[in-house]
Amino acid sequence: MNNKLLHNILLTGLLALIFSCGISLAQPSNRQITMDLRQQGKPLRPIWAYFGYDEPNYTYMRDGKKLLSELAALSPVPVYVRAHNLLTTGDGTAALKWGSTNAYTEDAQGNPVYTWNLVDSIMDTYVSRGMKPIVEIGFMPEALSVQPKPYRHEWKPGMDYNKVYTGWAYPPRDYKKWETLIYEWVKHSIQRYGQAEVKSWWWEVWNEPNIGYWKGTPEEYFRLYDHAANGVKHALPEARIGGPSTTGPGWDKAAAYLKSFLQHCSDGKNYATGKKGSPLDFISFHGKGSPKVIDGHVRMNMSPELNDAAKGFEIVNASPFKHLPLLLTEFDPEGCAACGMTTNPENAYRNGTMYSSYTASSFARLYDLADKYSVNLEGAISWSFEFENQRWFDGFRDLATNGIDKPVLNVFRMYGMMSGNRVKIINPMEIPLDSIVKTSVRGNVADIHALATVDKNSTSVMIWNYHDADVPRENIPVTITIQNIPAGKVLLNHYRIDQDHSNSYEVWKKMGSPQAVTDEQYQILEKAGQLQLLQSPQWITTKKGEASIHFTLPAQAVSFLKLTY
């Protein structure tokens, strides 16, 4: 064993002990990160290519269509999209945490009337861009709800969140009519898009039935699920049906709900068929972080979000369904996308680079957790889209504001440029995974780490400098050493998200934070919102297949190195 390798092993062990004891260290002068392209793992599954939002009618509006086009363009694989309120009754007027399609009404005699034009407008927007729906089966149409009044909520940021839960959250008065509605929906989808297309969708029953989104009992949710699944499978036996889309299993009550649901699907009585068990093609649950304002600044907390994932993985592995695909159908730094920073100052992280560095770090750690628990993680939805006709940079959890991309969207552009197999990272100063799951990123040491892939003609490396505390910190020198490159010369493209690159928010602030943006300003902001190079592309000569790249990485910045050969 050479001295350098022995030093790295000893230092890594020492750091694991230090972090487990909660001891802080001063920042080192230089971070050394090494990767050997011969040490390859599995292909990097695009778990990041999933997005969602409450307000389905934004889908076909101006900025919604623009953002969906950008999301489709940044990914080499189909992007999956999930939206609430696909069956909610109303005229299609969009509002915060509200949407409607009027898909189901009844005539004067109580006969079902199916109206699919708004649902079609939503699905058409996805399918025409090569995107795939995660079809959330909900919420309850007014004509079916056991308690329909009041139905349309008038919630606004700053109000009691429980005011959101109105007549749409209740069980159906007739479960057979509910089942037939789902059957007709799937049948209509096949007629419009073809069987092969609809087979590629995911069908998920409801959202977070363990809290106010469902005003029934767990048993009533299981009944809702069974009838929905029966309707889906009746129309298309090969369709993929799943749930229960609970809140994070890090909460004991959510964990118990998930366990009960899996047990019901395994050996419970099916409420629709009377047989044992229920169809289950995938399992879904959520994970959320918890930012706070501490001493006048935002302090993020990745621990609850990752702990939700870990607890969910444990529950699935202990069930008869551990082989099934898993979807984290919401995976975010906190819970309310429509709560801006005016009413919720802890959400001030959303406009700038803290959101982007957090996202780079949290998704990379989610890959590590999936490896640790050997689960079949299919995707993790960022519940973050856009809010039509709102104030500029008002602190919503969105990817773009008024059609201008925020820094966080550029992290997904980076992920979209990664392909091939994962490469093992040797990082002596890496914060251990268990430490981040337990306590997030605190103390004096930032999470400066990397995720790398290699394919036949290129190597991609994402590096971030993340810390929970939104306070000024010094730039950190970084050296990335890549070994066994199969070429004598490589072309390096170095992309960056920081205060000066890929950051429309900082450009907008320098304009004076205008709420009335001119056409010229819009064009400048639009360009600033794109992923930008830190420097001009350059050729690097390797030495015995090795190349070292030196740069400084500011606080909350993300770099992306693309080496092509």
From TrEMBL:
The active site is at 208 (proton donor). One of its GO terms (biological process) is carbohydrate metabolic process. The keyword Hydrolase applies. SUPFAM superfamilies: (Trans)glycosidases, Glycosyl hydrolase domain. One of its GO terms (molecular function) is hydrolase activity, hydrolyzing O-glycosyl compounds. It comes from the Bacteria. Residues 1-26 form the signal peptide. Keywords: Glycosidase, Hydrolase, Signal. Residues 33-528 form the Glycosyl hydrolases family 39 N-terminal catalytic domain. Belongs to the glycosyl hydrolase 39 family. PANTHER family: ALPHA-L-IDURONIDASE (PTHR12631). This is Xylan 1,4-beta-xylosidase.
